[in-house]
Amino acid sequence: MSATFEQLLAQNRPILYDGATGTWLRKLGLPRGIAPERWVLDNAAMVFAAAEAYVNAGAQMILTCTFGGTAFRLRDAGLERHAYDINRQAAQIAKQAARDRALVVGDVGPLGYLPVTLGAISYKEAVHQFADQARALADGGVDLFHIETVNDFKELRAAIAGIRDVSTLPILVTWSFSEQGKTLTGITPAQAARETMNLGVAAIGANCGNGPWEMTNILREMHRVAPDLPLIAKPNAGIPEHRGADLIYPVDAARFALLARDWVRAGVKIIGGCCGTTPEYIAAINVELGNTTLPAHRQVTIQ
Q: DSSP secondary-structure letter at 80?
């Protein structure tokens, strides 16, 4: 059996998370314009292979292929009627890939285009959307949940409420900050930490954004506000450039792994990657931080 989340937190070394699901699936052949969630139904073998590659690279936690897994978000791909099956099967595929070597984390992404704040969906309906997704992920056997790429506090509260309607599993939360150091709705890292720390979450942090070099200051700001909560760093590999049909990310795996040392010094407990990162990045972090211990003053708790 793999260690529980509480047991991983108790270890005096960083927890290694996975990298980007969509980026790796595209390298495995997912066509542009096709939602990764479609492959959960149509090409489960490749979704399995992507998850297994991260476990083989050393990841102790892997996300399900459900970033856009709410029925509301799946409408864009014409998959809303398959929402339950997609989420349950994605969790089952990840569990099979993990084979008790890693925890499986139910990935809960945003509804898209700030619909709660802009009035495209009611708060009550948003809670219902997230509850339905969480129920399917829980039925598939996830070990915990991760609400990621958060920009909007109203939507975050809806996501947490929805998950809590159906599950008591731990919830991780990561916000996404722009080049100006704020979310799309103008929230700073300190404000994000302050507004999240009392919502009963197990860890907080940041994902995606403009690149790994900006992560240290963001995390230090969050750590000052919420020093007792475990911190998560899951940045992207920089802003990509189009080269023909390809997207090229400017930060390679070796440089990304070196920057991860700064995140540990900033108080981070859980480290992975977002857009542009692949199993190569996770393997590089695993080597770079293999013998790294957390600062003596660093204590983590789980709510």
A: G
- As given in the structure block, the two tokens for residue 247 are 């997207």
What does the DSSP assignment read for 231-288? Answer: EEEEE-SS--EEETTEEE-SS-HHHHHHHHHHHHHTTEEEE---TT--HHHHHHHHHH
For position 296, what pLDDT does the model report?
57
The predicted pLDDT at position 116 comes to 93
Q: Which two tokens stand for residue 162?
A: 């929805």
Q: How do residues 187-215 score in pLDDT, each as one tens digit?
A: 999 999 999 999 999 999 999 998 999 99
* Alpha carbon separation from 251 to 62, 160, 210, 237, 248 (Å, rounded): 22, 33, 11, 5, 9
Per-residue three-class SS string for 143-197: CEEEEEEECCHHHHHHHHHHHHHHCCCCEEEEECCCCCCCCCCCCCHHHHHHHHC
Sign of dihedral through CA atoms 192, 193, 194, 199? positive
In the chain, % of residues over pLDDT 70? 97
Rounded Cα distance, 187 and 193, in Å: 10
Residues 6+ apart with CB under 8 A from 168: none
Q: Which helix (H) or strand (E) holds 201?
A: none
Domains within the chain, CATH numbers bracketed: 5-288 (3.20.20.330)
Q: Which residues pair with 144 in a beta bridge?
A: 105
Contacts of 43 (CB under 8 A, 6+ apart): 30
Strand partners, 232: 205, 270
Q: Report d(CA 103, CA 89) in Å as an integer.
A: 16
Q: Residue 290's pLDDT band (boundaries 50, 70, 90)?
A: confident
pLDDT category at 179 given cuts 50, 70, 90 is confident
* CA–CA dist 215, 44 (Å, integer): 33
